[in-house]
Each structure stands twice: as C-alpha cells, then as structure tokens.
Amino acid sequence: MRRWGYRHVITPLVESMDVLDLGLGVDQRRRLFKFTDLRGEVVALVGERTVPVARLVAGKLRAAALPLRLCYAGPVVSTDEGRFHHRRETYQVGAELIGASGPVADAEVIALAARCMEATGIRRYQIDVGHAEFFHGIMDAVRLPDDVKGAVRSALVARDFVGLESLLEGTPLKSAEHELLLRFPALRGGPEILEAAGALVRNRRSEAALTELSRVRELLVGHGIGDVVILDLGAIRDFDYYTGVIFEGYGPDFGQPVAQGGRYDGLLAKFGRAAPATGFVVQLDLVSEMLTRAPRPPALPRIDAAVAWTGSGLNTALRLGSTLRLFGMRAIVDTQSRGPAEAKAWWRALGATNLIHCRGEADVSWSSDGQRTRTLPPEQVAARLAGGLS
Amino acid sequence: MEGALELLTRSGLLSLSAEELGRQLLVERSDLRVILVRPADVPAYVDHGAADLGIVGKDILWESPGSHYELVDLGFGDCRLVLAVPESSSFDGPDTWPPMMRIATKYPRTATAWFEARGQAVEVVRLHGSVELAPLVGLVDGIVDLTATGRTLRENGLRIASVLGSSTARLIANQASLKTRTAAVQSVVSSLREAAGGDR
Questions:
Q1: What is the value of ipTM here, to two decimals?
Q2: What is the pTM of this model?
C-alpha cells in the first residue's frame, strides 16, 4: 500500500463510546465489548477501524488537504453473536481514500484491494462489484405501502428470498422492480448484466448506478484486473452505511468473503468534516485460514544462511551476517561457539540453505545443500551466496 | 429426510434411498456430494461453506439466522411452531397470560423473540427432548414446540394456545458458493425449484 501512496496511521484499540456512537449502526454498537475507564466514561474495543480513521481525518488531520490516502492494520474485536465458532478477534488490514468521489477513486480502491489480496499469497480470487444506489433506486421506485417496504428491506438484508416472494405476492401492484428484487441473487455477470438490468429499471438512481458501474469496470480493466471482476447488482450489504460502489473479494473454496469495501460518503459529515470516502478491509485471519487449508499451503520463508563460529571466528561471523543482510538475505548468527559437527547439526535443525562456519578471522568454510564443503576467504562469501541465490 | 430425497429424485439430480444415505452419511454421485447431518447442523455446514446448498426446515432457520441465502420454499415438511399448554390451563390469548410466563422449548431464541414482541416477560427453560412432559410435572406453564398434526400434544394432555409460525423445508445456499460457483450452484437450485413446483 505504501507504493500506492497510502500513509500508515495507527488508531487506538480502545475508543470512547461517544465517538463510536456517531459512526456505527445499532447492531454494530451492540456487538462491541464495552467497559468503563477510571473516570467512568464508557469506552469500547473497536469493532472496525473506518470510524476511528474518520475521526482522525476530521480531528487531528483536519488541516491536511484532501484527498487523503490512509491505511492501517490491526486487530478488531466484537462479541460472539454467532451460533458456531465465531471469532471474537480478527486481524484487518485496510485502506481509506477520503475526499475523492467518482469512478476513478472507486476503481483505485478496488484495484488496491485486489493487489493486497495478491500480496497475501492468494493466487486465484474474484472481486464482486455492486452499487448500493441500484438497490436504493429500486426501493424508491417499487410501489408498496411503507410498512411492506420495511419488511421487504428486512427480508432482503436477511437474504430471505422465500419471505420476500411471499411479501411481494401479497401486493396487487406489479412492476419491473418486483421482478428485479426477486431475482436479486442472480443479477450478476459481465458487462452484459448492466444492459439487461438497464432495460428493466425505470428510475434515475438505479440508472445512474449502472452508468457508474460500467465506468468503474472499464477503469478496472485499465488497472489490469478486468478478468477477476464480476458485476454483482444483487450485492446485499449494509445499505444504511454504503452510498455508492461496493465490493467483496472471494478466494477459492472459502465460504465467506475475505475482503470487502465500498463508498460511504455519509460518514465523515457525522464528524464535522463532510467528505466523500471509499475504502476496504482485508481480513488477514480469514486469508491465512484459507491459505493454510489449500492443497499447497505456503511454507515459511527459508533462512538463507546459518552463520556458525568458534573462538575468534565470532567477529567474522558478525561482519558476514551484516553483509549478507545488506544483500537482502535472511541470515542467523549463532549465539554459541560450535565445532564442525555440532554446527552442521544446528544448520540442519534450522533448515537453512547455507552454512557458513567461521573458525577464525580468515578461516571460513561454506556448506550448501548437495554440495561439498569448501573453504573461502570471508570477503568472497557474500558474493558467492548472492550469486548462488539469483 | 424422505421429503428431501424424494425431491432430489423428482428433480432428476440423483436418486438415493434413505437406507443408503443413512448408512453412509456421505454419498458421491454424478458430480454431486450429498451429506446427511442433523437438521439443526445444516446451517452450520452451509454458512461455513462445507456445503454449497442445504435443505432444512424453516424452524431451524428461525432459531439460527446466519449468512446463508434462503432461496426456495420446497413445500414439504409442513409443521407449525406452537405454544401449547395443559388442557386444564386457563391460558389462552395474551390477555390471560401470567405476569411472568415460564415455558420450555427447544427453540429458545424464537420463543423469546415472540413473547418479547408481545410485551410478555418470559422465562425460557431450554430442553433437548420430551418437551411435552415439562408442563405436566409443573416445571413450566407451557411449551413452545413444533407439531405437524398436534397428536403428540393431545396424547400428552396439551392443547394449542397460539401459533408462532408455520414452517416448511427451505433450500439455503452459501453466500460465497452463489458468487464463486454460480453456474453449477444455480443449475442445482433451478432443478430443485422446478421439482418443488415453483414457477420461477
């Protein structure tokens, strides 16, 4: 994320409830671990970090010019609400682009999320991109009494399409929007889905959303990730919070999204600095779970060099260790003196690629997997190892 | 389970006997893998992505809402979740309930929410079986339980005071499966929808 110009910020794990109240919905507030500090103020462990970042932007960083590109990493905590094993603590890496609106900003954040997923080691992934306004437009246009509308909304958010169908069946008025709502989970695919949906909707908000999505898709092709993007008009998310383009990242054979994000233009105003904003989080604990369950789980990176020493070889060992690290290699210098046989055993136990044994100021031997041990002048070691590695 | 297997046969997806599945618990056939788990465990398998799709009663879904999509009412497995009280009890509608109602149930979440929505204070005793006994021995005022015909209730000297909801079997889907394996999952969904008599 540094390469995209996002500055790392550290927000507190414990936040005042007054701050969190401003930014969070009722359900999110309920799930917080809350307690009181010594002055009797109610505080909570953060359940997400977008609200703390928003407070930072409206507070300490209020003089900083927008747009701001910020990123963060850290644990977030929420109380156990699920029936099954449910994580209390998850580790999230996230980024927020604050003060920029429009498809170019949306696409930047989606592309960054995609690159972050790649950086974690996920080889195959998919990003579903939708738009909250598409849903809002349909709900505006659909002709239903207010109480039924509320029930329709709840059914949709609960992903209860059986309930939704019976609600809509009970109403005499039928429109294209009814049909769209019922087909919500199936409204996904490539650019053709935008046209198909465009032919069905008859309201400005949804049409504007489709136009914006089409533009975002083009831009994502420009970012080089067009082939992992799927348009999902039926994306169901927290519609009170998100105001524009929304997205979710899925890995292979894993039952839940590992990354999610979207545009939330309403949040910053609650902290007194109205600004458009978009961002995402990657759930690193889910990613690690997914990767370790894959057919070829990622191995820990190998140590490049185990540097052992006896007697006066310690100085040489320390110097060599520094040099190897300058070359970008992972080098461990032993903490105790060892003879040749012991040094070999220590090397095997570490699983390092090379063993450098310093037996004196200028007496260094080099062993490597599948090669015989050679004696080398110390100044040649780094070059030989670097040559062997490249 | 019979209803689900009959539906699978009717949909042409695969035909499997109850004995076979009951014996093996996991059967693989024609690109499908069918697993048999306890009804209450179905949402767990689906929500965690161990199964792409699940067939489960609505009563279970009331009790354990999750991240799955509820896609089709499969129509079989009709039953009602009811409040049943002893024949001799004076409890009927909400006006006749005591200030603090004690009920026994296997559905604590659904029961609590239902009473709370009616402004009734309730103490829920969670039981795992033979719930009908609890009011007869004075443990509770009534029970909230599932009934198809009401026979078991009558046999135990209980009568239905209120109906909390009606349940049928539902088809549920994992959220990620719908998105990452759309074609395969949707084709099974539409076969089952058709077999269940849905018109969409």
A1: 0.72
A2: 0.80
